[in-house]
Amino acid sequence: MDNILVYSDSLTWGIIPNTRKRLSFDERWPGVMENLLLEKGKSVRVIENCLNGRRTVWNDPFRPGRDGSQGLAQVIEMHSPLKLVILMLGINDFQCTHNISVALSGQGLVKLINIIRQAQVEPGMPIPEIMVVAPPHLKKARGVIAYKLEGAELRSQGLSAEYAIIAQAYQTLYFDAASVVETSAIDGIHLDKGQHAILGKVLANRVSATVLAK
Fold first, then answer.
1. Which domains occur in the chain, in start order?
2. pLDDT per position as a tens digit, 60-97
3. Do residues 174 and 132 touch, judged by C-beta distance below 8 A?
4. Which residues of the chain have pLDDT under 70?
5. Which one of 143, 197, 205, 207 is at 20 to 30 Å from 151 when CA atoms are compared?
6. pTM check: above 0.90
7. Which segments cross the bilayer (predicted)?
8. How far is CA 96 from the centre of its chain?
9. What's the CA gap between 74 and 68, in Å, rounded?
């Protein structure tokens, strides 16, 4: 069986826009991806490690544990052997508590890539492949948490392009989620149920054709 780790934030956790409720596993894109890969005859398990508010490498001054680099090496050890790690982070780097450029967010991504590759897994276990998934473009934030991402739709412009450059430089797989899905019209931040289904299907096909075809 091949283990796939998804390391992400609330977009993948499955928060229902403008609520504190959560989509079921089968409705979230990792669950959609796992089910479709199983239907294709792939022996896989998709492991979610998704935390609301997680940044690449910055702390939240109000909620602990949101620096995505902290504990990542241990997460890799915990779930090894891993075939693939999918990273979809970056949106929370542009919360109002930070003055972060897309270039700095990109350097946060670089740190995560290096941590994954340097994790102290057991002897003989593989270093997993990495797929960077650039998050969909933010719209103007609305609703109960809009204040956290005020202006982030402007400050995060160019993030997909920055992540693509880093993925090429560090020889990871890359997918731009904005090429197939968009954030919800309800809050401008998260994914509606239908968008989870689309992203899960596309990534299942991408993972099947690349990582699991080897």
1. 2-209 (3.40.50.1110)
2. 999 999 999 999 999 999 999 999 999 999 999 999 99
3. yes
4. none
5. 197
6. yes
7. none
8. 20
9. 12
